[in-house]
Design brief:
The structure is a homotrimer.
Chain A (H helix, E strand, L loop, with lengths): L2 H13 L3 E3 L14 H5 L2 H9 L4 H4 L6 H9 L9 H14 L11 H13 L3 H9 L1 E5 L16 E2 L1 E3 L1 H5 L4 H11 L6 H17 L4 E6 L10 H12 L6 H21 L4 E5 L1 E2 L13 E2 L9 H6 L5 E5 L5 H10 L3 E4 L8 H14 L5 E2 L11 H24 L3 H19 L3
Parallel strand pairs in A: 1-2, 2-3, 4-5, 5-6, 6-9, 9-10, 10-11
Antiparallel strand pairs in A: 7-8
Helix pairs in contact in A: 1-17, 6-17, 10-11, 11-13, 12-13, 15-16, 16-17, 17-18
């Protein structure tokens, strides 16, 4: 039995499974793309093209025409042909637009652009993409003041993203948005907690299935009493600058109360751990963030012990954090491994991470993959990349090494791809 | 030549080698199991079942009948079928009890339970297990006040475990145990050192082959003068609370003196580096510990330089520490790589760790594997798991990549599996 | 298609490519070896033999005859036969001296020694080695006061190594060397900056293509004003001891000005990040350094943002740092991945690192490999080791997984092996 053939067969079978994508940045009012610029505008292409030498000013010129933007990016794509992200692009072009080549160049891009624009203009384009990609439901990343109206919340599942509340509450803009969204003028700890509660009410009333946040490597949540937060909160509300220590106190207070509400509203709390924002300040939009690998899940010890009733699907950014994630999910009932995030979302890292999780974490506690996509077309190549790696691990570690039947291995694959998403998020 | 066939052939050959297990938690007075509850009671199963949702109260109910305990755990096993630990269980049941299925379920567990109980009740069960597993000698983990009598110390090799002395000397219970074991009432640094010496005399007189300790990620040993330890020691002896700094001083003093005695008594000092205790305080018994990957062997620089005469077989808990371990064993004559510990003891991590060690550390400085087992039956599946990985690395990296003969590759395998254990521990 | 056959075919093709070695420690006045002692005297063999038990006094005995030195080292080689470094040795002996065995032992070493000595005495030995190894150009590591004369700077490319300036300027010897090399008596910040400028003039006038430095894990460069450095500099110049903080200020000042000169003189600045010097103080020559994995590229955030015009080819010592390197090269236009350094230079680590870089970093921003060699003969086996790993990754990830043609995969391989070196260092 050839390992390659077996892997291909398992991947083909997994491809037939309808998917629920448990994390994306889809705008439900404009889920699919309208031109190739929506695809090539994804930060993976702009940041890689910029990294390879394309000036930011060329990419982010104000008023730049979408077609010209694609033209400029295509001119730099040769430098990125090796990347896995480039392979996503070619796969999308081939599957969705009948593209015949395996390279996108200055010689062939324009006809592709026009073909794509026509296809994307079809009124059922969004439906076509979902169907071709076998995507049934897609989780969103909603601002806390999103009205959550005007779209099908059964297809596009609301998710309460809370970075602004935890890390930017001192900004007047955040305070104003919170007041407007909740009708509560926050003036102290008590009204802040009340306002947060309003958000949970609003979101769960609209089918929200998760609370979510991304966290810097230094974050180490602690409980903070209402009494202790009053001074920093007062400073924040009156526009006074907060010391690093005060800012941390305020962040901790909000974060801990979010976890509290996750108990009350029975929501999983997605933790995406390890990102440093704006490390490369002159980078392109969304291409500025990096990380510091010196981060440990021990920083979450108090949180995980304090909230046994809350499920924490955890993503880690640094590859070296995966061993801790495997081990914490192995021990803590409320820790679930969640996908392969951002800089760890390439086959070289997915394979080792997927392998270690499948060997050591209960199979019911693993969310295999999410797309993290901004435009619907990316679901297909991203899940395909993951399914290939998953199929390889199932082939090597379960069918070949442990003598499992292919069907039994596929059951495990389906559970991590879909079954666990359904159960953990209570769909 | 198929890599899979070659691997299987090498694994089969390695399987014929009689083993010395250089680290276990076997109770020599009850080495083998008496019911399936002894197997399923291993913390890997209780903690994974608990992690998958089985309440601790169900597992640790006072007075729980062994059969009922197995019943409850089997009811949760479906969630763990993917884990490598589950595969150990099935392999034990198949090899030792003729179990025919590949899943242990509520439908088939009871007859297995009864079959196992009968087998385990045979007077020579312990001998049967040792023989089937090709285990010749097994190292123990003895409390410092273990009398070391009533068992064959040539089969079960005593090993002086020193965690209590280094980290819990401030507890009255530890002081009382030390006084009782040595006949010395510790009152100052001098009598403390004398008491430690008594322990080494006692242990080496009973065939002890190693001193051992597990250490938290923050530990960084330093020499402490007798003068500097008097105050913290006095506090400890009189029941006064120690500051963190005083506790560290006391730990360092004891630890450094243990290393000193290892020189005098010519004992290797097993360091098991990186565990944080009771991270998940509500976890099941032995299922509460985790780690912080932010740990470096540079913390042991002073120790390794100060004791060139002592061999330090080092185990690391975090997978990311393996590269340091490889490099420190490559440079320091007194550092030896030791097995694959706990959260790193799954094939995904063993394979990379084994590969890097075999490529860069002198072959005479590698202890391939230890079982860490509590019951004798686990030696078989654990060593089998390791031998498969070792055989794969020997096949890929030595026979295929370097053109070694199979016999030459097997010699290397036998050295890390057994030869080095024999030489390093002076058997 | 067998993956092993494909890998071999690709490796053979890559072997035909003439090489530019972008980092070595070759002495251009004595580039090739004169006896086997030059090969076995490489720190990999002396430190591994010492690690395996050969006393330092045996290896570094004053006045030791080269032949006797080889004799002693050969006597310990059996312990190292598993290491990849041993395989380099055997490959050199087979290719360069027609050695027929696959082990170097006390039974066969002497005739090899004599054969090698004869071959090495041939007047064109250096040319033979370069030709057999397909080495066209080799970068050097020059002391800042190297006259750079008496050798062909088109074959042996000068490179300004700056460790002494950044970390040892407080030593009178460094100050005297600097004064002699530049004709400038440093007395304050301004004259120090001027002296550094003189070095850049001298080096670039002699064809220097890079500035380079190795850095400890704790280093985190910051700009320092001329004003702020005056006090520490004055202390250094007058032989007063510097506090840790003052030493850091001085190091930062020099380092930042080196980067400034890299702008002016259009030189890439090679950063080799992560080495702790003299960790094992009693180790053999060059066998004393190790590392602390707790290091992050976030420490270089300010530098990378401040010098967008400077290309930084970055090497990392700890394997766990590779994910950060991949990610920083993916985002920062001025970060280039550079080779596989020292303790990471073994196939087990090269394979994962090479794989992740090829999947996520623009192909134009990757310098595949450098030899780091001290003697010319090592270029062959080291590059061969790398080419095999590279060929495997190209076979598995590109030809098999992505359906690339072999020729397309080879183009990618040639770019990382040679094309990028040429372009990045402006050859």
């Amino acid at each position: 039995m050839s390992s390659n053939d077996l892997t291909r067969r398992l991947a083909d079978e997994l491809h037939r499974l309808p998917l629920i994508d448990p994390h994306s940045h889809i705008n439900p009012h404009a889920a699919a793309s309208t031109t190739l610029a929506d695809l090539l505008g994804y930060h993976y292409y702009t940041e890689l093209a910029h990294s390879a030498g394309l000036p930011k000013s060329q990419i982010e010129e104000p008023g730049l025409d979408p077609k010209e933007k694609v033209h400029r990016l295509v001119g730099k794509l040769a430098d990125l042909e090796n990347t896995i992200q480039y392979s996503w692009l070619i796969e999308m072009c081939q599957v969705f637009f009948g593209f015949q080549d395996d390279r996108l160049t200055l010689a062939n891009w324009e006809s592709l652009y026009d073909t794509a624009a026509k296809k994307m203009a079809q009124p059922d384009w969004e439906e076509q993409v979902l169907k071709t990609s076998r995507l049934e439901q897609v989780f969103l990343t909603n601002d806390f003041d999103d009205p959550l109206t005007g779209f099908d919340t059964n297809r596009y599942i609301p998710c309460l993203r809370t970075d602004d509340l935890v890390f930017h509450l001192a900004k007047p803009e955040t305070q104003q948005r919170l007041a407007k969204a909740t009708g509560i003028a926050v003036s102290n700890a008590q009204t802040l907690v009340a306002a947060l509660g309003k958000l949970f009410q609003h979101f769960t009333a609209h089918g929200c299935r998760a609370c979510a946040i991304s966290l810097p490597p230094s974050f180490a949540p602690e409980p903070v009493s209402a009494n202790d937060v009053e001074a920093p909160l007062h400073a924040a509300l009156t526009g006074k600058p907060l010391s690093a220590c005060e800012a941390t106190t305020l962040s901790n207070f909000v974060f801990w109360n979010l976890a509290q509400y996750c108990v009350e509203f029975k929501l999983p709390f997605d933790l995406m751990i390890g990102v440093n924002r704006r490390v490369y300040a002159d980078g392109v939009y969304q291409g500025q963030d990096l990380f510091d690998q010196r981060c440990s899940l021990i920083q979450y010890q108090k949180l995980l012990n304090a909230f046994p009733q809350v499920t924490f699907p955890i993503s880690v950014l640094a590859n070296s954090s995966n061993h801790e994630l495997v081990s914490y999910a192995w021990i803590f009932p409320n820790v679930v491994t969640n996908g392969h995030w951002w800089y760890s979302n390439i086959p070289a890292y997915i394979e080792n991470d997927c392998r270690s999780r499948l060997q050591a974490v209960p199979q019911t506690k693993q969310i295999g993959y999410y797309s993290d996509m901004y435009k619907l077309e990316f679901g297909l190549p991203k899940f395909t990349m993951y399914r290939r790696v998953l199929a390889k691990v199932l082939a090597d570690d379960f069918v070949i090494a442990r003598g499992w039947s292919e069907e039994r291995a596929l059951e495990l694959g389906r559970l991590t791809l879909r079954g666990n998403v359904q159960r953990i998020f209570g769909m």
